[in-house]
Amino acid sequence: MTGTPSVVFVVDDDRSVREGVKRLLESREIQAETFATAEAFLACPRPDAPACLVLDIQLPGAGGLDLQHALNRSARTLPIIFITGHGDVPRSVQAMKAGAVEFLTKPFRSERLLDAVRDALACDRADREARAAQDALRARVTSLTRRERDVMDLLVSGLLNKQVATRLGIAEITVKVRRAAVMRKMRAPSLVDLARMVDRAGAPPRGRT
């Protein structure tokens, strides 16, 4: 995933700004796609790649903050760098509180924008890798049978094999067999590692019976 080409989306109703930012990014071998409105951006399919959004706060139709809120409500959020010629403190504070990584007032220095873009792309790449790792862990948990999951949940809570057997009303040897299956399917070297995996996976659905 680290080697996946990244893309920067530029949304600004000023054509000269859009084209200027696009030229700047492409001069650094960063792919860029431009849009004049928030609606045009939302209507365009996005590639499955690390990305960020360079967004004007003042747009015809839905404004930059509206687009930020729409993205925050969706399953595919993006790091956002706001740019504006009409910046004010309340709007910048609102944008940053909603998760913007930077707020630049036009005219801005090229290197400052490039630094912000690099930081945003690195952030999105790290988020995507973390989500992929969590999805892989959840898939392992889901592969467990319901009985294996019962054993795992009690083991990671700190109970010993004998205590798990008593709690579930099964033989201790059965607990050991299911524990071995859990460790193998989860690819966990130890119970400590297993507990960390379960924590990182969150609470995915239980497996089959």
The rough form would be described as: elongated
- Integer tally of domains: 2
CATH topology of the largest domain: Rossmann fold
User: Mind summarizing the main beta sheet?
Assistant: 5 strands, parallel
Q: Helix tally?
A: 9
Helix content: 55-70%
Overall pLDDT level: 90
The CATH superfamily of the largest domain is known as: Response regulator
The ordered string of helix (H) and strand (E) elements is EHEHEHEHEHHHHH
Describe the structure.
The protein has 209 residues and is of the alpha/beta class. The chain contains nine helices and five strands; from the N terminus they run βαβαβαβαβααααα. Helix 6 (146-156) packs across helix 8 (172-186). The two termini are 34 Å apart. The model has no long low-confidence stretch (mean pLDDT 90).
